[in-house]
């Protein structure tokens, strides 16, 4: 498998995206459960048949471009294949020195964001990204080595990883995570996501409120004709509620924070709905921690 991934990492982005589209449709055709989940999740958001068809190919493209991103030599920059929009929001947040939380859902080429940030801003303030270690040992090792680059650190989705992110924020650094990832039982609350209850992590809002860090949203859109990616930065559409408004009811506070986060993810997804992973099992019950 490593030999195949190494070979794929040296192929052009156009080749990988063409291959990925085929893989996406193969998975859609062969897996009834995946097909049903993709259709059902997309329907909740009002995505029509054309949008669902586009999402099938885009999901495959995400998988196929991963070897290129993971195994790319650190000396080979992503730019100029990466375009940026609204970078002044990051500049202002870094200048404030309070730390920065970057959030993105399973949308577009989300693996690109941390690497591109590290290239552009990592020398000033490195980024630490949260990830869930793979179950297979060889893939777990590959994940760790591939994602660790100059200006880019990784933190496992464990208590130790959370402490690592808190330390980074208190040092004025940046952290990144995917708030639409289903957390282990006890690390989230149920909150609406496209109108249906979804178990939602509380970590993103806790990191922001406890450390006083700035919070920004980001998405990385795959550009047409495999010409690269465009990273777009947004402010949170609505502020996180303060704990004081809930008079000591932490459960109610965290539930409302999760609802705000889910609405923010919906906002991002609607910017580029064809590139969201609608086949992701967003509404599953949490696993035991």
Brief rundown of the structure:
The chain has about 290 residues and is an alpha/beta fold.
Structure explained in plain terms:
- Strand 6 and strand 7 form a beta hairpin.
- The longest helix has 22 residues.
- The model has no long low-confidence stretch (mean pLDDT 93).
- The chain has a domain of 195 residues: 3-Layer(aba) Sandwich (Glycerol-3-phosphate (1)-acyltransferase).
- With 289 residues, it is of the alpha/beta class.
- The protein starts with a helix and ends in an 18-residue tail after the last helix.
- The strands form two sheets. The chain has a seven-stranded mixed β-sheet, with helices on both faces. The chain has a two-stranded antiparallel sheet with strand order 6-7.
- Helix 1 packs across helix 4 and helix 2 packs across helix 4.
- It contains ten helices and nine strands.
